[in-house]
Here is the input.
Amino acid sequence: MKVLILHLSDIHCSKRKVSVFDKIDGIRGVVESLCSEHPDVTKCFVLVTGDIADKGHKSQYDIAYNFFNLLRSQLKAIKTNIEITYIITPGNHDCVFSKVEKKRDSTIRRILIEDDSVEESEINELVEAQNNFFDFLSKISPIAFSKNISKLFWKIIIPVDEYKISFYCLNTSYISQEHEKQGEITFPVNLLTDFEKYDLVCALFHHPYKHLQFLQNRPKLPFRPSL
Here is the structure.
């Protein structure tokens, strides 16, 4: 058995930007070509690394939900027996800042300036800006979502024959701000463990490494080597 991994990002769904639906034919064409070359593909993992919405609004996730359902049906039309699984992490545009930005500011400053450690209560406070995203995730990717997951980091483990694939989902935008600057995204890399247990590990996160460069005035656990 072979698996197909498809990567999408920054689709920025909104009522003003409906052009994302125009991409479906192109995506289908790529998948159709790959399935033709590899007829034993029976699983397709669609990895989406953030900015599903443009401003994090519920109406934008309604558009995204329709998009991903249409994409699923188009891919299933290529091969009826192919299993489509969405693995999705949020980006900075999946936050609604207007309601919670002031509340989050002091916590973000503490993490950036004083200490990288993040308490559970602080995580809940910081990800409140992403409530619409997690509501969407629970509908489109129930395999990834449960009420018990940490909204900072979660793992999805999927067996494929005798192998195990693990998807490490990192919510690097938990600490995003409306006016984001390079180097002001930090992540507790001590959470990233157990790589050796799996045959393949795919780590998903939204921000490029340059945004994850830590402040230079204090020591940090390096992010990139941890992956």
About this structure: The helical segments are 24-37, 58-78, 97-113, 120-126, 131-140, 223-226. Residues 2-226 form one domain. Strands lie at 2-8, 41-49, 83-89, 153-160, 163-170, 200-204.
